[in-house]
């Protein structure tokens, strides 16, 4: 089967990492044929690395219109993801967009509308953590009803440590105008996506958000959010770039026990009798259901970016089911935008999906005018 001819738009850290994975043969289903970057140095580097076997373009538009590839990876700063994805789809190219799908929901809705009109194209998001077998297993157990109804979810994801020197490198990061946020937009799109992917979408959110608390940046670097789900279950989400060593602990409590993922292991504290059943029949006053602590064996390999790219190519060539469909990129972003909006409204509850126009209005003020597209 022919390899998918691939173009990369944005040859920075992530774009060049995809290229390196291709060069190492980690994605045999694809070949790099084109690169676009507005920075001539990055373009030069790409051409040198691929010994002039690729086409180079100084803009996304030139690459998209060139006919040198049939699919693109969009690895530019976040604000550009939707508009570049739309241009690529309208030119008949398959699209793998980097996370986050965009910065604000109305631009991502527009991208999703165009994708809906181009069902002949394969469009995905690079949510590489969806290939982690631990999270796949937890999703499977929840969907199989092993926990019964979910009552509470708690994710403490504070091991995204970034020092001041990281931010002092400058550029588009950690600014409203360049990035549209901080830890929520840069590091957490993965976790917010996984959270909703495994546990479902909350119906509302409220949050306490700190801006420039640990680092000299204008955007958020610490977040504590509460959510509520349709069934009345609650959730708590805590993240920061300022903690070392930090924690990555996800706990999901349900009627039939709790599952905890921490330290790359999954433990199921399984109740012999479900809590509602126990409660309905137990007459002994103080007492608890019998609990069995089990380590859940998790098989499979975390294939990360090469796994997502292989799946993208297989979906193009063989119609394989997509691991991270483009249209799901908006879900984690809804939670992210909801957290910001709640903070801008003084910690009020914000219903999901968020009011996109209200969100954009606040973001525009923070950007000092029009947000980039
Ligand atoms: N999936 C992941 O795990 C993961 C990891 C890292 C980064 N990313 C995402 O990848 C994207 C890029 O991040 P990065 O760390 O590579 O940033 P980066 O700054 O290293 O690279 C961005 C590149 O895009 C180029 N660029 C900027 N504007 C452009 C334009 N209009 N047209 C063409 N090229 C343009 C820049 O010159 C630069 O080379 C971000 O959205 C980021 O969130 C995803």
Explain what this protein looks like in three dimensions.
This protein has 373 residues and is an alpha/beta fold. The chain has helices at residues 13-23, 40-49, 60-66, 81-90, 105-117, 133-143, 164-168, 189-199, 275-281, 304-318, 329-344, 356-367; strands spanning 4-9, 30-36, 55-57, 71-74, 94-97, 123-125, 150-157, 204-211, 220-228, 234-240, 248-254, 257-262, 265-271, 291-295, 350-351. Helix 4 (81-90) packs parallel to helix 5 (105-117) and helix 6 (133-143) packs parallel to helix 8. The radius of gyration is 22 Å and the shape is globular. The structure holds nicotinamide-adenine-dinucleotide. Nicotinamide-adenine-dinucleotide is lined by residues 9-15, 36-39, 42, 59-60, 75-78, 80, 98-99, 126, 128, 171, 186.
Instruction: Give the ligands present.
Output: nicotinamide-adenine-dinucleotide
The first-to-last residue Cα distance is: 37 Å
Main beta sheet strand tally, sense and closure: 9 strands, mixed
Question: What percentage of residues falls in helices of 4 or more residues?
Answer: 25-40%
The helix-strand sequence is EHEHEHEHEHEHEHHEEEEEEHEHHEH
- Weakly predicted, low-confidence segments: none
- Helix and strand content put the structural class at alpha/beta
E-strand count: 15
Tell me the fraction of residues in β-strands, as a range: 15-25%
Shape: globular
Q: Please tell me how large the radius of gyration is.
A: 22 Å
Integer average pLDDT: 97
Strand order of the largest sheet: 14-13-12-11-7-10-9-8-15
Count up the helices. 12
């Amino acid at each position: 089967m022919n390899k998918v001819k691939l173009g990369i738009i944005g040859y920075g850290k992530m774009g060049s990492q995809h290229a390196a994975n291709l060069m190492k043969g980690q994605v045999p289903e694809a070949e790099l044929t084109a690169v676009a970057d507005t920075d001539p140095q990055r373009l030069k580097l790409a051409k040198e690395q691929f010994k002039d076997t690729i086409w180079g373009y100084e803009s996304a538009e030139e690459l998209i219109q060139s006919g040198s590839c049939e699919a693109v990876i969009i690895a530019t700063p976040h604000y550009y993801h939707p508009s570049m994805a739309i241009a690529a789809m309208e030119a008949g190219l398959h699209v793998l967009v980097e996370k986050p799908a965009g910065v604000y929901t109305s631009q991502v809705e527009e991208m999703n509308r165009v994708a809906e009109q181009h069902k002949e194209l394969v469009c995905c998001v690079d949510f590489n953590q969806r290939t982690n077998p631990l999270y796949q297993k937890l999703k499977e157990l929840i969907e199989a009803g092993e926990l019964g109804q979910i009552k509470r979810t708690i994710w403490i994801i504070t091991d995204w440590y970034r020092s001041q020197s990281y931010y002092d490198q400058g550029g588009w990061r950690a600014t409203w105008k360049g990035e549209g946020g901080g830890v929520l937009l840069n590091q957490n799109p993965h976790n917010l996506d996984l959270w909703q992917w495994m546990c479902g979408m909350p119906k509302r959110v409220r949050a306490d958000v700190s801006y420039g608390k640990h680092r000299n940046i204008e955007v958020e670097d610490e977040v504590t959010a509460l959510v509520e789900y349709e069934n009345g279950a609650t959730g708590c989400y805590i993240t920061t770039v300022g903690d070392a060593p930090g924690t990555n602990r996800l706990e999901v409590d349900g009627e039939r026990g709790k599952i905890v993922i921490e330290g790359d292991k999954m433990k199921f504290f399984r109740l012999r009798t479900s809590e509602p059943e126990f409660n309905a029949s137990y007459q002994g006053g103080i007492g608890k259901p019998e609990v069995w602590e089990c380590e859940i064996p998790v098989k499979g390999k975390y294939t990360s970016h090469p796994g997502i790219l292989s799946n993208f190519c297989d979906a193009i060539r063989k119609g394989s089911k997509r691991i991270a469909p483009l249209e799901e990129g908006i879900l984690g972003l809804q939670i992210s935008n909801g957290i910001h909006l709640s903070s801008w409204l003084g910690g009020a509850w914000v219903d999901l999906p968020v009011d996109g126009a209200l969100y954009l209005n606040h973001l525009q003020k923070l950007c000092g005018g029009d947000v980039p597209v």
